[in-house]
Automatic annotation (TrEMBL):
Gene3D superfamilies: 3.30.300.30, N-terminal domain of ligase-like. It comes from the Eukaryota. Residues 127-547 form the AMP-dependent synthetase/ligase domain. The keyword Cell wall biogenesis/degradation does not apply. This is AMP-dependent synthetase/ligase domain-containing protein. The lineage of its organism: Eukaryota, Viridiplantae, Streptophyta, Embryophyta, Tracheophyta. It comes from Vicia faba. Keywords: Membrane, Transmembrane, Transmembrane helix. PROSITE patterns: AMP_BINDING. Pfam families: AMP-binding. The keyword Transmembrane helix applies. It catalyses: a long-chain fatty acid + ATP + CoA = a long-chain fatty acyl-CoA + AMP + diphosphate.
Length: 726
């Protein structure tokens, strides 16, 4: 899954002047810039409102368990468990929501009109697709399909006491299969479509999966490992749009194989009474892509899913059946599963897309046809920070390339809105906002469909610059969430009216968050003015532990004297006076250098990622040395542009990355970013190695959420790291 979010291509055809509605840079444009940039701020200064008093979002609370500084959501004195009475499990919630919203649109998929293959200059072939409008099924229709699949699964021969695994990219049938299993109290094992052979074997065998549901294209991954699978009996495959007959290898002949449609038909003809689960039953064993070693299976109960769902529904303003959500992130990831659980509970329409077809310029979209966001025009969208960073970088680079009036006017508009967001100048009226939106920002917003009103961000820390950029240019607040697979994504969530950056909001109403002192790192819950310490989450979203791994479960999960379950995240946070959490460090990312200085690798990487020449970076610190080094995936576009401007000759990009001049240029860029972030000298990499190939989930070097897998990176580039310290 190269470029898993497809986001590096979202903005490659943006023309800022066209977006702003300009056809030339004549005198009328200059006059407009003067009027808007100078006179409008003065004219509307009479509407100055003054700074608002800070809103209390989280309040201290006395809790049981290990001592620390604990906070709860300010709006709820008691922890929230369910979205409404009777919705104790996902199966109950789903059925009740389908009854309530029976005639509303629910799941939408785009029709394949045609596809073709194009050949690039280097001989590689790429598939291009022409997709039509979304075809929708109502909540009632989807519920009928879920019921049929649940019955068909048992009629096919699945043992109700064994587990089902879903091994597929996100699509409507993924969710239907999940809910079908829940109607018969069957635990589902989720596996990333990009998972490697060893991890796939481990996941299927450890959980003793008897039925595998997968994309037909992923069946070829089973052929070479079939002899190592100890419990698999049935395979159900999702049909593709080609309507071609599928011939399966003799190696799969020992399995019962059926298409998803055949299983639905079987269940429709021979219905079976549902067997709904209890709230403490394990709904999902979710295998994390993991940053180290083999993936761990997190046991998520129905109660965990329902609690997070109920909590997030209180945060998204005016959530309901008028909303449209674009689903494209992996459903095997806790972030997407939690998001879709929230959407189905609220009666939202969910339209499915893919990372490679999101926009009109995505690399799998046939030229001249429309991407998913253009057709769907979603009001709600999820994104990991890597997507948002790339959107921001793409627009900024286009503005820089245009220069002149385009750049000046964009900067005036951006600074005006930034001042308003920060509260340093609150005199911007609705009329001025309308002017900026019409002239500057409206066309940029069409990149995400034009109707976006709320964006959910999670999976990794989001930079303050990128968060402000989305708030201003896209005009949609970002709900930045903090959570883990071990808390079913439910820990903290920033609120829609909070435009501060760098924070993840107060605790969700389904849990408490406690900061426990970490003396070794110098973080204490008694610190002033902000308590600091390891982030520990307690409440209804905290999961049951790791599958078949009691030692690891006992290490990070604790149950206190009152029965409250706590998860020790390993993240370091601090609470602001208004009760909002900020993640400032991670215990595993902290390294002590030779002379006793501490370096937070994650903090340094986040700061240096803003460098134009850097596409990705991993900072490495050897405790036996007094400085750190870094592996840098160089930005093709930025570094090649620099080479052309400076007259550097090179054969190919690999040759360019090996040139001392290029290394020096990137080091200087990194140093500039480090100084802007006020990093200490020991935190700035003294040496770097430039790399050509991007780090993708398929390469096994980053997770599905694009977080670094340090151990894998260190192993792969061990020789390069040793040379940097030589």
């Amino acid at each position: 899954m190269a470029d898993p979010e497809g986001s590096s291509l979202w903005l490659n055809s943006l023309n800022i002047c066209d977006y702003f509605g300009w056809k030339d840079h004549g005198e009328y444009g200059t006059l407009a810039a003067i009027i808007i940039g100078i006179l409008v701020p003065v004219l509307f200064s009479v509407f100055f409102l003054g700074k608002k008093r800070a809103k209390t979002r989280g309040v201290p609370v006395e809790v049981s368990g290990e001592s620390g500084y604990a906070v709860r959501n300010a709006r709820y004195s008691e922890l929230v468990q369910v979205p409404w009475e009777g919705a104790l499990t996902v199966a109950h919630l789903f059925e009740q929501s389908c009854n309530k919203h029976a005639h509303n649109k629910f799941l939408g998929t785009r029709k394949l009109i045609g596809k073709e293959f194009v050949t690039s200059s280097d001989g590689r072939k790429f598939e291009k697709v022409h997709l039509g409008e979304y075809e929708w099924e109502t909540y009632a229709q989807v519920f009928a399909r879920v019921s049929s699949f649940a019955s068909g699964l048992l009629k096919l021969g699945h043992n109700i006491d064994s587990r089902v695994a879903i091994f597929s990219d996100t699509r409507a049938e993924w969710l239907i299969a999940l809910q079908g299993c829940f109607r018969q109290s069957i635990t589902v094992v989720t596996i990333y479509a990009s998972l490697g052979e060893d991890a796939l074997i481990h996941s299927l065998n450890e959980t003793q999966v008897s039925t595998l549901i997968c994309d037909v294209k992923l069946l070829n991954k089973l052929e070479p490992i079939r002899s190592k699978l100890t419990s698999l009996q049935n395979i159900i495959y999702f049909e593709d749009d080609s309507k071609e007959e599928h011939a399966f290898s003799e190696g799969l002949s020992n399995y019962t194989i059926a298409s998803f449609g055949e299983v639905e038909k079987l269940g429709k003809e021979s219905p079976v009474e549902p067997s709904l689960p209890s709230k403490n039953a394990v709904a999902v064993v979710m295998y994390t892509s993991g940053s180290t070693g083999l993936p761990k299976g997190v046991m998520i109960t129905h109660g965990n899913i329902v609690a997070t769902t109920a909590a997030v529904m209180t945060v998204i303003p005016n959530l309901g059946s008028k909303d449209v959500y674009l689903a494209y992130l992996p459903l095997a990831h806790v972030f997407e599963m939690a998001a879709e659980s929230v959407m189905l509970a609220a009666g939202v329409a969910i339209g499915y897309g893919t990372p490679m077809t999101l926009t009109d310029t995505s690399n799998k979209i046939k030229k001249g046809t429309k991407g998913d966001v253009t057709v769907l025009k979603p009001t709600l969208l999820t994104a990991v920070p890597a997507i948002i960073d790339r959107i921001r970088d793409g627009v900024v680079k286009k503005v820089e390339e245009k220069g002149g009036l385009a750049k000046s006017l964009f900067q005036i508009a951006y600074n005006r809105r930034l001042a308003t967001v920060k509260g340093s100048w609150l005199g911007a009226s609705r009329l001025e906002k309308l002017v900026w939106d019409t002239i500057i920002f409206k066309k940029i917003r069409t990149v995400l469909g034009g109707n976006l009103r709320f964006l959910l961000c999670g999976g990794a820390p989001l930079s303050g610059d990128s968060q402000q950029f989305i708030n201003i240019c896209v005009g949609a607040p970002i709900g930045q969430g903090y959570g883990l697979t071990e808390t079913f994504a439910g820990a903290a969530f920033s609120e829609a009216d909070d435009f501060s950056v760098g924070r993840v909001g107060p605790p969700l109403p389904c849990c408490y968050i406690k900061l426990v002192s970490w003396e070794e790192g110098g973080y204490r819950s008694s610190d002033k003015p902000m308590p600091r310490g390891e982030v520990v989450v307690g409440g209804f979203s905290v999961t049951a532990g790791y599958f078949n791994n009691q030692d690891k479960t006992n290490e990070v999960f604790k149950v206190d004297e009152k029965g409250m379950r706590w998860f020790y995240t390993g993240d370091i946070g601090r609470f602001h006076p208004d009760g909002c959490l900020e993640i400032i460090d991670r215990k595993k990312d902290i390294v002590k250098l030779q002379h006793g200085e501490y370096i937070s690798l994650g903090k340094v990487e986040a700061a240096l990622a803003s460098c134009d020449h850097v596409d990705n970076i991993m900072v490495y610190a050897d405790p036996f040395h007094s400085y750190c080094v870094a592996l840098v995936v160089a930005s093709h576009q930025s570094l090649e542009k620099w080479a052309q401007e400076t007259g550097i000759e090179y054969k190919d990009f690999n040759d360019l990355c090996n040139k001392p001049e290029a290394v020096t240029e990137v080091l200087q860029c990194i140093s500039k970013a480090a100084k802007a972030a006020k990093l200490q000298k020991t935190e700035i990499p003294a040496k770097i190695k430039l790399l050509v190939d991007p780090w993708t989930p398929e390469s096994g070097l980053v997770t599905a959420a694009l977080k670094l897998k340090r151990e894998q990176l260190k192993a792969k580039f061990n020789d390069d790291l040793e040379k940097l310290y030589a």
